[in-house]
Design goal:
about 290 residues; OB fold (Dihydrolipoamide Acetyltransferase, E2P); 2 domains; 5-stranded antiparallel beta sheet; 3-stranded antiparallel beta sheet; 6 helices; 10 strands; LytTR_DNA-bd_dom; phosphorelay response regulator activity; HTH LytTR-type domain-containing protein; membrane
Length: about 290
């Protein structure tokens, strides 16, 4: 179903401010150029001031939603569960505080009577005007990213299936990788080839590996950064995501959807996500395996 398709959930960042500014600028230009809702009766200097205020309402409301909602509801705003439908709901919710803000601003500027009828009118107009471009933008973005990452995944699969003969490394590395707990009281020693991936689990890391031909895992109190340091002499290990380190030599297949690449590992059911900002590094790493 279209609404259940995966969709990228971008974390709030400085770039978010730029997109929000562009949205507010579009509101300003539409009001100045088209002069809807009786704005054509207002003289130019006052018109510019009023349209700046309406654009400011959009900027403030969207900024608050973009940065506050993920903090207030972290269990909801998780990319692995984000879909086209959730993105549409989020965008529609953005329109509601904008409509309420415009309703209050109109009362302040033009002394309009505050009533439920006027509020519902603002909500209706805002939703009708905004829903179609929002829906179209979400669909086009989902399709564009889906094609992009599916094509990239196919290229990575081709690289995985091409045998590459590498020269023997000059630096010898130990046959066992030793992971130590933060307090130094616990150790886990594993051959590099048995490790599949490592993931963060609060104040712990969970190491997934093969033991006696069966997948298993071990929880160790430490950070993913420390595990990354231990694995730094083994080029096949790659931190592909803020919460995952993966053994690239165990990757059997790469798939892609609108959220990015997913790594399919040997003897592992879970799909390992790849951060979109690490796609280039992943391609370079795979080509050297």
């Amino acid at each position: 179903m279209l609404l259940n398709r995966p969709f990228p959930l971008d974390a709030p960042s400085r770039q978010s401010f730029r997109y929000i500014f562009y949205a507010a600028l579009c509101v300003f230009l539409i009001l100045v150029l088209l002069k809807p809702f009786g704005l054509d009766e207002i003289k130019t200097p006052l018109l510019l001031f009023h349209t700046v205020l309406y654009a400011g309402v959009t900027f403030i409301c969207v900024t608050a939603n973009t940065f506050l909602l993920p903090r207030l509801f972290p269990t909801i705003f998780r990319e692995e569960k984000w879909t086209v439908g959730k993105e549409l709901i989020r965008m529609c919710w953005q329109l509601i505080p904008i409509a309420i803000g415009n309703w209050l601003l109109t009362h302040w500027l033009y002394k309009n009577y505050l009533s439920w009828h006027n509020l519902f009118s603002f909500l209706w107009i805002t939703l009708v005007v905004g829903i179609f471009p929002l829906w179209l933008n979400i669909l086009l973005k989902q399709q564009r990213l889906l094609k992009k990452y599916q094509a990239g995944a196919s290229r990575l699969d081709e690289q995985l299936n091409q045998p590459v003969i590498l020269p023997q490394p000059v630096l010898s590395v130990p046959e066992q990788i030793v992971f130590t707990s933060e307090n130094g009281k616990e150790q886990l020693s594993l051959p590099p080839g048995e490790i599949r991936y490592i993931t963060a689990a609060d104040n712990y890391v969970r190491i997934y590996f093969i033991k006696d031909n069966h997948p298993t895992s071990h929880l160790l109190r430490n950070t993913l950064r420390k595990a990354e340091e231990v694995l730094s002499t083994f080029p096949q290990f790659f931190r592909c995501h803020r919460a995952y380190i993966v053994n690239l030599k165990t990757v059997q297949h790469v798939s892609g959807n609108a959220q990015g690449y997913k790594l399919h590992l040997k003897d592992v059911e879970e799909l390992i996500p790849v951060s979109r900002n690490l796609n280039t590094q992943l391609t370079e790493k795979v080509s050297r395996q």
